[in-house]
Amino acid sequence: MKAIRIHEIGGPEVLRYEDVAAPEPGPREARVKVEAVGVNYIDIYFRSGQYRGTLPFTPGFEAAGVVEVVGPEVTDVKVGDRVAYSGVMGSYAEFTVVPAGRLLKLPAGIDARVGAAVVLQGLTAHSLAHSTYPLKPGDIALVHAAAGGVGLLLVQIAKMRGARVIGTVSTEEKAALAKEAGADDVILYTKQDFAAEVKRLTGGRGVQVVYDSVGKTTFERSLDCLAMRGYLVLCGQASGPVPPFDPQILNAKGSLFLTRPTIAHYTATREELLQRANDIFGWIASGMLKVRISETFPLKDAPEAHRRLEGRKTTGKLLLIP
Ligand code: NDP
């Protein structure tokens, strides 16, 4: 089968399109014929060495397709089921092997492309808004990179929870998309001091929560956006990792909370995974949640997809099609 392989850490050029043997499922695993692969920022962390994988490896943590073979102990899915999953490495490939307990059956009406577009980022947005800091009516949330994959979903889900949402984006085009998703206010953080704007928009009070997926370039000013006892949810590092930090600052800036969540710990049991996925699929089916697939690339063009994602050229979701 064809797959993208990484033999060395580096830029997009290290993503090589190669022939490899199709993987065989173990007793509790299923082999999925991949129809669409979700591209996520975490793929860039692994390719560039910010997160460590054991070389060589097939990158990618999200895909959708059809179950082709199941191991003898698998009960959650059967051959022919249409499924999607996230959180298991190796999805940049024509076939992938996944523990059956991670597979989500796609409801009728949700095709493989939407499935591959929404699982990882949708589960993330769901857990951020419902569990990491459970938003309630009256809260004000600041969502950085609000026109990105996670961003557009998080804005919509935060609005469903009754929060007022302020988004940050880099361009006017992205601002329009964040507004369309429901953001009440949008700040161009490449042109404006976003902390000063947040203070202005909130009458000096600040926000209850900042969902900061940008990291290095936004972290310090994100702390300045928070109301007393507010939550800084540092959920990513698209601009680079945040340097070491003195916890005393949390005291000085208003008894703030800081957390660095990963979706793995918010979907650790099958029950929690299904509960979040059912919400997401249900909202898509009822039209409450819109999924924006902005670009699709053939699998072999994974390097170009990475260039665009890390070059801040994308909105919503990118897919690779084997
Ligand atoms: P996005 O589609 O959001 O792309 C990243 C966006 O970050 C860019 O479009 C850009 O938006 C913004 N950005 C700001 N500064 C930079 C920079 N220096 N370089 C590149 N991008 C920058 O990606 P994803 O939706 O895949 O992921 C969003 C974030 O959420 C990532 O940080 C990711 O790691 C995190 N994440 C965390 C998870 C978890 O479990 N904690 C799970 C899934 C995602 P703009 O141009 O508007 O600034």
Walk me through the topology:
Layout: E1 2-6, E2 15-19, E3 29-39, H1 41-48, E4 62-70, E5 82-86, E6 95-99, E7 104-105, H2 112-132, E8 140-143, H3 149-160, E9 164-169, H4 172-180, E10 185-188, H5 194-201, E11 207-212, H6 219-223, E12 226-234, H7 248-252, E13 257-259, H8 270-285, E14 293-298, H9 302-310, E15 317-321
Parallel strand pairs: 8-9, 8-11, 9-10, 11-12, 12-13, 14-15
Antiparallel strand pairs: 1-2, 3-4, 3-6, 3-15, 4-5, 5-7
The structure holds NADPH dihydro-nicotinamide-adenine-dinucleotide phosphate.
NADPH dihydro-nicotinamide-adenine-dinucleotide phosphate binds at residues 40-42, 120-121, 124, 145, 147-151, 169-170, 174, 213-214, 217, 235-239, 261-263, 309-310, 312, 314.
What does this structure look like?
With 322 residues, the chain is of the alpha/beta class. The protein is 29% helix and 26% strand. Strands 3, 4, 5, 6, 7, 14 and 15 form a 7-stranded mixed β-sheet that branches. It has a 6-stranded parallel β-sheet with strand order 10-9-8-11-12-13, sandwiched between helices. Strands 1-2 form a two-stranded antiparallel sheet. A hairpin with an 8-residue loop joins strand 1 (2-6) and strand 2. Helix 2 (112-132) crosses helix 3 (149-160) and helix 2 packs across helix 8. The mean pLDDT is 98. Bound molecules: NADPH dihydro-nicotinamide-adenine-dinucleotide phosphate (NDP).
